[in-house]
Amino acid sequence: MRPIYDVPVIQIDVTNACTHECANCTRFVGHYKKPFFMDLKTVEKALDSVKDFPKNIGLMGGEPTLHPQFEEICKLYQEKIPEKRRRRFWTSGYKWKEYEKIIKETFDMDIISYNDHSNKDEGWHQPLLIASDEIIEDKELMWKLIDDCWIQKRWSPSITPKGAFFCEVAAALDMMFDGPGGWPIEKDWWKKEPKDFQDQVKRYCVMCSAAIPLEIPSSHLQYDIISKGNLKRLEKIGSPKYLKKAFKIYDKKYTYEDYKKYFKNWAPGHYRDFVQHDPKKREKDTEIKKPWATFDKNEVCNAGLNAKEKKVKGKQ
Hints:
The chain has a single domain, classed as TIM Barrel (Alpha-Beta Barrel), CATH 3.20.20. Helix content is 32%, strand content 12%. It contains 13 helices and 10 strands. The protein has a 6-stranded mixed beta sheet with strand order 4-3-2-1-5-6, with helices on both faces. The chain has a two-stranded parallel ribbon with strand order 7-8. Strand 5 (158-160) and strand 6 form a beta hairpin. The longest helix is centred in the N-terminal third of the chain and has 11 residues, at 70-80.
């Protein structure tokens, strides 16, 4: 895993309200009875806690423009993060016309991440609610995959109203399942090595499937793919998506054979084929679609061998 101080961006999740309910959403939109809206005092506290972070600070949702104090939040970003290039913004374009002026004042257009999800033929999301601890019996393989997780290495730690987290999906899991919360939002919380956040890794990564090479479905499906244990957790919290039966159960065991099947072409971070920064223009994504999985059978050693293979190997 990667130290938090070395990641490219830290997100501040100001709300998990959204105008969409994409399949396998990283914020699990559709599973909450009521969304949260971070109060301005907490936004300010979050910004103060990362002002010395040397890289970028994101404004994230849900859909951030749904926050009733979106303009005030943007002004706080301008005040607390004076270097405009360090401010990042993720949006589906909702209320773009209403907030276009303040958006352009706060963020450089060429680094806004804009995705209105309008084309149902494009967009893919890695399933996230297939608990790794449920489906991978070989725990050495499970922890090897978790340690190599693409979200933790490429994407973002996150701050929510419940605290600071090493991973944005861990933060969303904590919010959805009413977990114990993250670390206090205080100066330099982000100066952590992997050894310093193993408590969160052990609590949340075992409920997640981000790190597991799988078939990546369309983000426009009307259901999430979920393991049985997580489905019970969703039933317990009264998830609206659960109540609508907007789910498909994943009930098989995952072995090294499954890993070999998917890892060579598995590129979960490549969730669309275009780059877009505003409603008017999109460009072809010129970045090469590289597979993520970074270890093979020789590197993983015995971790992914099934019981029969291990037994044979032991006799040799």
